[in-house]
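Predict the 3D structure for this chain.
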Amino acid sequence: MNGRLLSRYGRRAGKRALFLLPLLAAAVLAAEIFLRASGLDWKLLDKMLYRQRNDADAHRIDLNPDILYRLRPGRFGDDAHRVSINSFGFRGPERSAEKPAGVFRILVEGGSNVYGQGLNDEDTWPARLEERLNEGPGAGRFEVWNQGTCAYVGAQMAVLAREAAEKYDFDLAILALSNQGDRAFLWGSSAQPVFEANPALWSNLMSSSEDRGAVDFGTVARPGWLRASALYRYLALGLRVRKGYTHLSIADPESRNAAMIREFITWAEERMKTCVFLCPAVEPDLYTDYWRGTGAPVFTLRADGKPAEYADLHPRRR
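Done. Predicted structure below.
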C-alpha cells in the first residue's frame, strides 16, 4: 500500500515538475530580458566601484584593465583653474615627440599631487621644476613632462611610465608615490565597456581574501556566467551587497602596486635613470617595498619646522 502511494506521489510530483519547469524557464528568461533592457545589473556594479572624481572631465576611460582611465587631451576648467592636456596625454604645453638636441627630458609619474589638483598648469610642481631648471645658463635645456593622473596608484603609474618611456626618449623618470590601495574607476562613466573588454576583471574583483570574511565569492562569481548573463551578474552582485560589501576591490592591491613599480625600475635600468620622490604628506615607511632591492635613489622632501600647509598633499600657490 505504501509503495503504491509513493509511486502515485512520485508521478504527481513529476507532472508538477514538468509543468513548473517551463514556467521557471520563462520567468528566468523574462528576468534576463528585463535586466538587459534596464541595465540594472551594470548600475548595481557602478555603485559598488571605487571612483575617482577630481577633474573627471580631464580624464577618459581606458580599456586597459591595469589603468582603467588616463588624461584626456584638451582644455578644461576656467580662468581660476586652467587645465591643459596636450595631444600626447600629458598636462602642460604641446611637445615634440622627437627630443630636441641637447635637451634633458624628465618624466614625472604620480597621482593628483603631481597632476596638480586645483592648480593652474603653470603652478603644478613639475611645471615649476621645469621653470627652475631652465633659469640662467640652463635655459631651454630641460623638459619636464607631467603625466600625473588623479588617484593613480603604483600599478597604474608603472604601466603609463613604461608606455611613455617606449615612445618619447626620456633621460629620467621620477616616480612620485602618494596613493595606496586598489585602482579607481572614473567618476561619471559606466564600467560596462571595461568589463566587457576584460572579463578577467570579474575574477580580480569578486575573488575572496582574508579580510572579507568566510564567503568565497570566487566559487559564486564565475567570469563566464558573469559575462553572459545579466541575471547572474545581478544576483552575484546582490549577494555581495547582502553580505555587507559596499564596493569591489582586488585582494592585496599593495603587493601588486609595489611589484609593478619594482618591475618598471628594473626594466628602465638600461634605458634611463629612475628615482622615487616622496612629498611631505607621505610616510616613507609605507612605501619601502616599492623600491626594495632595486637600487633606485629615493628623495624625501620633509616639512619639519615649516607651517602646516607645507605638508598638504594638494598645496596651493600663495
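Confidence is low (pLDDT under 50) at residues 208-218.
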